[in-house]
Every structure is written in C-alpha cells, then in structure tokens.
C-alpha cells in the first residue's frame, strides 16, 4: 500500500490535485479541472485529470462518491498518517511555552 502512495505522490500534478482537495474537499471533476487551470496554469483535459484521480483513488488518497448525476472527490489522509507513523512513531503532545 505504501508503494502506491509514494507512486501517487511522485507526480506534481497529483500533488496539486491533493492540494486543491485539501483546500476544498468534495469537488467534481469539472471543479478540479477549473482550479488546476486558474490557480496553476495547467491546461489538462478532463480525461487526464480523471486518470490522475484514478491513481490517487487506487492509493487510497482520494475517495469518490456519487450524488445524483455528480461524482464528488474527497481527500483521505489516513494513508499519509500511516506513512508518517511508520518512520516517526507516535508523537508526544506538543507542549506550549
């Protein structure tokens, strides 16, 4: 599973998609494409973005849900938490000065 996550994160376009979903979860494919174009200057086709979303979904970083005619995409951070805990272990609570 971690290999899929690393593969998904290796591509800068997929990282931008995750950034956009972190900024605003529950976006449609059309919304993601529009944000990639306006905020990052990426003129990708819907098919290309859909393929990137499929890789992210296979890695468990994105989950999609259908509501009527629309398909919404949501960020899942559990795979990232697993990777962080793998090397950093449990973190003690931060103390405030």
From TrEMBL:
Give the superkingdom in one word. Answer: Bacteria
Q: Which UniProt keywords apply?
A: DNA-binding, Transcription, Transcription regulation
Q: Which Gene3D superfamilies match?
A: Winged helix-like DNA-binding domain superfamily/Winged helix DNA-binding domain
Entries under Pfam families matching the protein: HTH_20 (PF12840)
SUPFAM superfamilies in alphabetical order: Winged helix' DNA-binding domain
The residues covered by the HTH arsR-type domain are: 1-95
GO molecular-function term, one example from the UniProt record: DNA-binding transcription factor activity
Q: Does the keyword Transcription regulation apply?
A: yes
- Supply the name of the protein: ArsR-family transcriptional regulator
This protein's record includes keyword RNA-binding: no
Q: Which InterPro entries match?
A: ArsR-like_HTH, HTH_ArsR_DNA-bd_dom, HTH_MetalResp_TranReg, WH-like_DNA-bd_sf, WH_DNA-bd_sf
CDD domains reported for this sequence: HTH_ARSR (cd00090)
Q: Which NCBIfam families match?
A: HTH_metalloreg (NF033788)
């Amino acid at each position: 599973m971690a290999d899929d996550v690393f593969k998904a994160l290796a591509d800068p376009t997929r990282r931008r998609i995750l950034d956009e979903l972190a900024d605003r979860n529950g976006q449609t494919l059309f919304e993601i494409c529009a944000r990639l174009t306006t905020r990052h200057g990426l003129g990708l086709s819907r098919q290309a973005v859909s393929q990137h979303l499929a890789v992210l979904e296979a890695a468990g970083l994105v989950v999609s849900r259908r509501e009527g005619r629309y398909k919404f995409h949501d960020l899942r951070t559990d795979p990232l938490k697993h990777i962080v805990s793998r090397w950093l272990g449990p973190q003690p609570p931060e103390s405030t000065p």
